[in-house]
Specification:
Blueprint: H1 2-18, E1 22-28, E2 31-35, E3 38-49, E4 52-53, E5 61-66, E6 70-71, E7 79-81, E8 87-92, E9 98-113, E10 121-134, E11 139-151, H2 152-156, E12 159-171, H3 175-197
Antiparallel strand pairs: 1-3, 1-12, 2-3, 2-12, 3-4, 3-5, 5-8, 6-7, 7-9, 8-9, 9-10, 10-11, 11-12
Helix pairs in contact: 1-3
C-alpha cells in the first residue's frame, strides 16, 4: 500500500515540475499609435515581474507589442484586431537584462470600449492570447490585457495611452519531456508490480 501511495505522489509531482515556469508581468505608461492598420506600443514600463515591484521612479524593463488590422466600423467602438503580423515582447532591463519572452498574438484580439458611449474621454481594454518562446528556450502560452485611455481628438490622430497591463505566461512542456515522464512512471509501476509478484 505504501508503494502505491509513493507512486501516486510521484505521478502528481512530476507533471507539476514540468509546468513550473510561470511568469506574471504588469506594465504601465507609454504612448501607443492606433489606426485601422493596427496598434503599435513600444517600451511600456514593466512595473512588476513575478512579485518584484519597480521603484516609483524606475522600471524593471519594458513590454512592447503590435497587432494586425482592425475589423470593425470605428476605433471608437468595440471590434477585434487581427493576430496576423502581430508580435509581443517582454524585455528585462538593467543588470542581467535580456529578453524574457518573444512571441505573438494568436487568434482575434478583442478591443472593448469600457467608457460610456459618446463620452469625450474614452477607455478601452485590449485582450488576447499570446504564444512564443521564453528566455530558457521553452515555449509558453498565456494571455494579456492592456488598458488604454484617450480622447476622441487624440484617437482621431491615432494616439492613446497605456494606463496598465497584465500578462500571465506558463511554459508548455515539450512532447519529449512528457514522453520521458510517462515512460518513467510506467517503469516505476513495473518495478513495484514485479516486487509484489515475487
Amino acid at each position: 500500500m505504501r508503494r502505491v501511495v509513493i507512486l501516486a505522489l510521484l505521478a502528481l509531482a512530476l507533471p507539476i515540475a514540468a509546468w513550473a515556469d510561470t511568469i506574471d508581468v504588469t506594465n504601465k505608461f507609454g504612448t501607443i499609435s492606433v489606426s485601422m492598420a493596427g496598434i503599435v506600443s513600444t517600451h511600456s514600463e514593466m512595473r512588476s515581474y513575478n512579485g518584484t515591484v519597480a521603484k516609483p521612479s524606475g522600471s524593471l524593463g519594458y513590454v512592447s507589442f503590435g497587432t494586425g488590422a482592425f475589423s470593425g466600423t470605428s476605433l471608437a467602438s468595440n471590434g477585434t484586431f487581427s493576430a496576423t503580423g502581430s508580435w509581443f515582447d517582454i524585455v528585462r532591463g538593467g543588470k542581467g537584462g535580456g529578453t524574457i519572452f518573444s512571441g505573438a498574438f494568436v487568434g482575434p484580439i478583442d478591443w472593448t470600449l469600457t467608457s460610456a458611449p459618446g463620452s469625450h474621454h474614452l477607455t478601452f481594454t485590449l485582450t488576447g492570447d499570446i504564444r512564443g518562446m521564453l528566455y530558457n528556450g521553452h515555449m509558453a502560452t498565456g494571455t494579456t490585457t492592456q488598458y488604454f485611455t484617450t480622447t476622441k481628438f487624440q484617437l482621431g490622430k491615432g494616439i492613446a495611452h497605456i494606463t496598465g497591463g497584465n500578462t500571465t505566461l506558463a511554459s508548455t512542456p515539450e512532447p519529449g519531456t512528457l514522453g520521458l515522464l510517462g515512460t518513467g512512471l510506467v517503469g516505476i509501476a513495473g518495478i513495484f508490480r514485479r516486487r509484489k509478484s515475487a
